[in-house]
Amino acid sequence: MKKLIASGLFGAALLAAGSVQAANSWGLINEEIVRFDAKVVDILCELNGDCPANCGDGTRQLGLLTSDNVLIMPIKNATAFSGSVEELIDFCGKTVTADGLFSTNRGYKVFAIQFVREAPDGKWRGANRFLTKWAKAQDVDPKSKTARQWFRNDPTVVELIEKQGKLGLGLAEDQKYLESQQ
């Protein structure tokens, strides 16, 4: 089985000297600004061989597989509660240069992607595409309150909450929890 995020793997060799684009510090504890090349992969495909075409067309979680077989699962981008699928789906199966931050919190090492380009010298783009794409799909202004609070207004999210409750444990469990908080 492939290793998941090996600590200390990406040293100074991963930072591209003289580059124009660079990740921004967020002031996190144990933050490390990194840049590395990796292939964009469908995580389920890598782990269990379930491999739909084009990484599931944006319906699957995507990861970054380095040349030494380390699978990195990038976390959200600049929009709250969103993931990195919108940032990476266009690169399914291709090698990219990812620019972002590794951070360790309570023993967990995470990678927040900030910029990406097709390797070796594609055009950089910010990892901030989710909200614009979501707003366009919902036919709302990307600067509107509806878009900024997309997680409250997304039809799929609303449907899931109606069926499974806000905690995802069912409506009865939600009710028990709310009663226990009064």
Largest sheet: 8 strands, mixed
Query: Helical residue percent?
Result: 25-40%
Spatial gap, N to C terminus: 47 Å
Q: DSSP strand (E) fraction?
A: 25-35%
Task: Let me know the number of strands.
Answer: 8
Order of helices and strands: EEHEEEHEEEHHHHH
Please tell me how large the radius of gyration is. 18 Å
Average of the residue pLDDT scores: 85
Lay out the secondary structure.
Layout: E1 3-4, E2 32-42, H1 43-48, E3 62-65, E4 70-72, E5 74-75, H2 85-88, E6 95-105, E7 108-118, E8 125-126, H3 130-138, H4 145-148, H5 150-153, H6 155-164, H7 171-180
Parallel strand pairs: 1-4, 5-7
Antiparallel strand pairs: 2-3, 2-6, 3-4, 6-7, 7-8
Question: What does the model show?
Answer:
The chain is an alpha+beta fold. It has helices at 43-48, 85-88, 130-138, 145-148, 150-153, 155-164, 171-180; strands at 3-4, 32-42, 62-65, 70-72, 74-75, 95-105, 108-118, 125-126. It has 7 helices and 8 strands; from the N terminus they run ββαβββαβββααααα. Strands 1, 2, 3, 4, 5, 6, 7 and 8 form an 8-stranded mixed sheet that branches. Strand 6 (95-105) and strand 7 form a beta hairpin.
Descriptors for this entry?
182 residues; eight-stranded mixed β-sheet; single chain; alpha+beta; disordered N terminus
Q: What is the structure about, briefly put?
A:
This protein has 7 helices and 8 strands.
